[in-house]
Amino acid sequence: MEATPNSKISSGNGGDNAAQMASTAGHGERREKLMSDLKSVIGAAESWLKNSAEHSGEDLRAAQDKFEATLHMAKTDLMRLEAGMLAKTKLAVQSSAVYVKDNPWKSVGLGAAVGVIFGLLLARR
Fold first, then answer.
1. Which residue, 23, 50, 77, 117, shows the most beta carbons closer than 10 Å to its own?
2. What Å distances lie between residue 33 and 28, 93, 117, CA to CA?
3. How far apart (Å, rounded) are the C-alpha atoms in residues 37 and 85?
4. Are the C-beta atoms of residues 91 and 9 closer than 8 Å to each other?
């Protein structure tokens, strides 16, 4: 997308809202899958450590391979989630920069209002 002085990013338009909601739902599903994978890795590690004295060489190797595969899957999911969050953060920063550039006085007023509110909240304590 070419940036012109008056161009705005259309991340908040009606047609894009469905895509954003689907993307957010996708991130939620990935986050849940990651949490489930991490719980599985922790459970496998606990059982592996608890039962390591009881296992023979082949059983121990099979448990270790399963543990490593689950850990690899959790790492992969974490990297995907991180990449998605990084992309959304970059988009938000870009949108903010365009908004501030297009509306400098509104941005100054908003910053001042937020500063006053934080100042009042801190003064109450």
1. 77
2. 9, 28, 39
3. 19
4. yes
Distance of CA 6 to the CA centre of its chain: 30
Distance between CA atoms of residues 101 and 93, nearest Å:
12
The whole-angstrom separation of Cα 47 and Cα 44 is 5
Token pair recorded at residue 99: 């908004």
Strands (E), 20-62: none
Q: Token digits for 102?
A: 């297009």
Contacts of 57 (CB under 8 A, 6+ apart): none
Residue found under tokens 């002085």: 5
The model's pLDDT over 26-71, given as tens digits with 9 standing for 90+, comes to: 667 777 777 777 777 777 777 776 776 666 777 777 777 877 887 7
The answer to whether the beta carbons of residues 70 and 44 sit under 8 Å apart is yes
Tokens of 42: 């922790």
Sequence-ordered alpha helix ranges (H) in the chain: 14-51, 57-102, 104-124
Q: Which two tokens mark 49?
A: 């450590």
